[in-house]
Amino acid sequence: MIKRNFEEMGFTPGILKAISELGFEMPMPVQENVIPLMLGDECDIIALAQTGTGKTAAFGLPLVQATDTESNNVQSLILCPTRELCMQITGDLADYSKYMGKLNILAVYGGASIDNQIRALKKGVHIIVATPGRLIDLIGRGAAKLNHVSSVILDEADEMLNMGFLDSINEILEEIPAGRRTLLFSATMSNEIASIARKYMTDPVEITIGTKNATAENVSHNYYLVHSKDKYKALKRLADSEPDIYGIIFCRTRRETQEVASMLIDDGYNADALHGDLSQAQRDTVMQKFRVRNLQLLVATDVAARGLDVDDLTHIINFSLPEDLEVYTHRSGRTGRAGKKGISVSIISPRDKITIHQIERKIKKPFKMMQIPSGSEICSRQLLHWVKKLEMVETEHQEIDRFIPEIEEKLAGLDKEELLRRVVSLQFDKFLDDYRYGEELHSPAAESEEGFRGKNKKGSGRKFEGDYKRLFINLGKTDGFFPEQLIELINSNTKGKKIPIGKIDLMKTFSFFEVEAGYAEEVIDALSKARFNDRRVAVEVAQEKTESRGEGRSHEKGKRKEKWSDRRTDKRSDKKYGKRKDRKSRVVTYPGLKHRH
Ligand code: AMP
Questions:
Q1: Residue 272 contacts residue 295 (beta carbons within 8 Å)
Q2: Which of 305, 412, 550, 576 has a CA positioned 20 to 30 A from the CA of residue 287?
Q3: Atom of ligand 1 lying closest to residue 49 CA
Q4: pTM of the prediction?
Q5: pLDDT value at position 450?
């Protein structure tokens, strides 16, 4: 393909001006491929490209250029999985259309005031950027009219499917006239994606773009080998030995993420958690704190960290290795950006060694086994770091001067050495206590595993394993009720608590969700007083039967027999926590609750 710059692609002067103000000099590969197709032919496009490859501009610039601002109709629809992405795309489109007169773009997502969104739609919107759940709600209320839409973008389609939006996407696409153009962006090509493409796209052109997150040359890959029970201690040592660390600690499950973060916070680290059990507002706050470096360590699940694009991370820490090796590449590609050095560290137990070898083959780079820093090494690194800070500190505050005589008088009896000793002691008691007499962590030979149960964990009485209780709720997808709404409902009615939420199963008119067993009663009580879109909420414990598979009694008058055991896929937690082995034999029946009105 002949390389063309933005001018040669045929953008209007207004858009070219915006592009230049954004500092885009040359099109990125996805843009080179997609923009000419969008500005030229009417063909449908499937682009396999990840976040970070420049895909928003690839579809956004041509969409903006093609918009007729004289018309009051919605002309383009962009569907995406999360509120963060929705806001990010809306902001990007606003940048692209800065010099295009009155082009109205509306972000439509759950958790924000629906009345404001309805008002904005009434005034006239040209491009809607939406998460599927809220858009269905607005279509149902007659507020979003899609009968003039000529371009549809499905962004991060694989993620939307992962989040259970397939039915909603189908429902929305049915609303849009057949002559439209459809673009689908996805990081992966799965069977479900292919089936959406077959159903809603016409002879799509397929484009595959290399990953931005491909492992950079300047990322080193290290691992610490420890007993499973020592993983948290190793994490602490790693954090302690890197006083300037600014990194993301990846865990596999929401539960593990919250537990690791809570332990770090309890142990005095500048850390917080980011996972799907937090409300949108909580996630926004944590991400913002991390972006502005008010947090040094962010403990996150892969899915929750998706909306976060931070360029200058010093470390990526794999507290648990991902199941999918591709995910390792995404994780480690978050460090070592913009020419900086990056470190991807994995804290592994002997059984993970095989995965390390698989990753080595995939990324074609060797991992280096690192020695866990000794206590004295950590103390000396911390001290040197502190001394360096002391050397650099600026003492220009006039206010300090007036306290000096009094301080001098009070400390007159101490010579310089004693004074230093005391200052250091004040500063380092925590480390000295932790490490002076502390045991050292040793790498095990590949030996039997105890399992990571946190039983040697200092202080807190938290457990790593927890029983979850499955609850029934009288709200489902047709009520505009999706995981985001459920989490928001629980969080807003149990203020100040972070109730651990397990698996969520959404049906059309009702749903099931799990909460940690100790919180079940509280959640039932709190939600039973709650309302959702003016409906009374009803929650009950989902009743289980221990025998006779297939006897599920359905709320939908026999239309569907729900079998918990059939739909459980939580094999990871079964394996890891060794708790749920009995699930296969259990069948859930719905409580005999009269739901709806
Ligand atoms: P995206 O994949 O759309 O999230 O874009 C990733 C980042 O690349 C964003 O920060 C964009 O602003 C930036 N970007 C997009 N196109 C270009 C370009 N042609 N040149 C430089 N940066 C770009």
A1: yes
A2: 576
A3: 2
A4: 0.49
A5: 34
